[in-house]
Amino acid sequence: MANEYAEVTNAYAEITNEFAEITNEYPEIANAYAEITNAYAEVTNAYAEIANEFAEITNAYAEITNAYAEIANEYAEIANAIAKVTNA
Fold first, then answer.
1. Is 24 left (phi over 0), alpha (psi -120 to 50) or beta?
2. Can you give the C-alpha Rg of the chain in angstroms?
């Protein structure tokens, strides 16, 4: 009986020690999780910045395309005016 009691006591001590180890490791795990969360937020913010820059570039490209279209229209008007004068 004494041996069984000793075995149970030792098993309880082992479990208590393992629980203490886990408890001690929890802050490290929580800190690592916080670091990962912060890194993810940084990546997400960087992605948003890139998306905004891409949108600005796309808008600038659209403005340039519109300007080219306006110039093409003006050239067409000039060509039509020259054609009228030439045909007249």
1. alpha
2. 37
SS3 88: coil
> CA 9 to CA 16: how far, in whole Å?
10
Q: Where are the domains positioned within the chain?
A: 1-62
Please say if the pLDDT value at position 59 is more than 90.
yes
CA distance from start to end of the chain = 126
**Cα 12 vs. chain centroid, distance in angstroms?**
47
Give the residue carrying structure tokens 């670091």: 35
pTM of the model: 0.58
Cα 12 to Cα 7: distance, rounded to the nearest angstrom: 8
Total length of the chain: 88
For residue 26, give both structure tokens: 């929890």
